[in-house]
Design goal:
alpha+beta, about 25% helix
């Protein structure tokens, strides 16, 4: 699994759509993933459609994160999927900064595949398109 790279972090994004913006390469920051948090399909969709809500899983792991030359952040992803959202908590329980981690590849283990074998899978872009159609 890739645990570092660079991404454009957006301050206080409301939805995953806020992370899908064109940006200059110099706006990207180096990051290191300190912990991956895997959510079920419904919990992940809830998270990416209201990223400013207080989340217990962010509060439980906020102390692991820090900003500096390399941002140490959390990766929130849907179980069984690649990519996700890189999160730098602000305060203790909500997203202060976030970036779209769409180029991260994961080696899924057997338990992960079995847990998600019955779920419909969406990429971040498919979820974004679906949300746009609902408006």
């Amino acid at each position: 699994m890739e645990t570092s790279g660079s991404v454009c972090f957006i301050r206080h994004p409301r939805t995953i759509g806020d992370l899908m913006i064109p940006h200059l390469l110099e706006r990207e920051r180096q990051y290191e993933i300190v912990k991956t948090i895997m959510l079920g399909k419904i919990d992940y969709e809830n998270f990416i459609t209201d990223m400013l809500a207080d989340r217990q899983f962010i509060e439980d792991n906020a102390a692991l994160c820090s900003r500096g030359e390399i941002w140490k952040c959390l990766l929130i992803r849907q179980r069984g999927q690649t990519g996700g959202v890189l999160v730098m908590p602000e305060g203790t329980c909500f997203v202060g900064w976030a970036g779209l981690a769409d180029r991260i590849e994961f080696a899924l283990d057997e338990a992960d595949r079995a847990a998600d074998s019955s779920n419909v899978r969406y990429s971040a872009e498919e979820v974004f398109d679906r949300l746009k159609k609902q408006k």
